[in-house]
Amino acid sequence: MPASIPSPPASWASFSIGIFTIHSYALCILAGIIVAVLLTSRRLTKRGGQPGVVVDFAIVAVPLALIGARAWHVLTHVGDYFGPEHPLTDGATWLNAIAIWNGGNAIFGSILGGAVGVWIASRWTGVRFLSFADALAPGMLLAQAVGRLGNWFNTELYGMPTTLPWGLEVPTSNAAFPAGLPAGTLFHPTFLYELVWNTAGAVLILLIERRVALRWGRALGMYLIWYGIGRSVFESIRIDPTTVYLGLRVNVWAAFLSILLGLAIILWSRRRHPGVETSVYRPGREWVPDAPVVSRYTAADLEDDPDADQAEVPATSGAPTSSR
Q1: Residues with Cβ < 8 Å from 298, sequence gap 6 or more?
Q2: Of 126, 114, 146, 120, nearest in space to 220 by CA
Q3: Considering only CA atoms, which of 111, 86, 118, 108 is closest in space to residue 99?
Q4: What distance in Å separates the CA atoms of residue 91 and residue 84, rounded to the nearest whole number?
Q5: Predicted local confidence at residue 34, as pLDDT
Q6: In terms of Cα–Cα distance, which of 129, 104, 144 is closest to 242?
Q7: d(CA 134, CA 44)
Q8: CA 157 to chain CA centroid, nearest Å
Q9: Do residues 40 and 54 lie in contact, with contact meaning Cβ atoms separated by under 8 Å?
Q10: Residue 203 — very low, low, confident or very high, per pLDDT cuts 50/70/90?
């Protein structure tokens, strides 16, 4: 028997705790978000960002990224949600369109939605958009890698048939199983390809940053180029139905656009910002740590008056306080 990757039992896709149903796909997405937040927080804090400011970004960017991811998927698979058999007057049609827990979330949509959220949060916190994006870049790739495990739990987004030893087993009962193929046919595990590719990209960015300061959008540019190259290949061998323009799937075109945008950002950055990034904050919005406090009395004063008020005051009169 040749080696292969088994699909999980259908029961693994979700489980119940009391009245609540927990979806494995959602847990993978949540785990990816946590990984990205933790890594980005560490990177941004080391660059002078206020500890915890990443949470401010997450509050805005994560919901918009999820909305964008679902909207992109639905718009590129309109027939699956609003076809002839799905009347617009049926509430189930609309519920199915927003059922993010059932899978079907487009990363390009999450990038667009998340970018809007990051821009809003950058105006709120004073952190530069590009500075945050650079700190986020490797964490974003790791989040996408972890999230791809959800596709395995849902047995979705696999590629064309293959005889490779790491082919994915897909039951014939699967909705996307191609008609006419015999049971036991193996398929390219495109979710695994992207998981490995994204993880490698995150490691590459972290290694390059040991020698070169990827600031002013350069890490963001590398992310867009790396992800775009990989996605253009993996998307080309997927067999799930989607919108096609000029013979190419819409996500392949999006991948090409991602590569071009990444190159443009890097070229613009090298020309516009050849110097060192001195702060992740915009001028006038810098975060200043709280001033240390000392006693208003010296040791000699306390010896003369042991009962003196020992209230603490800022070391420097009028010291600035932290702000976001």
Answers
A1: none
A2: 114
A3: 86
A4: 15
A5: 94
A6: 104
A7: 9
A8: 18
A9: yes
A10: very high
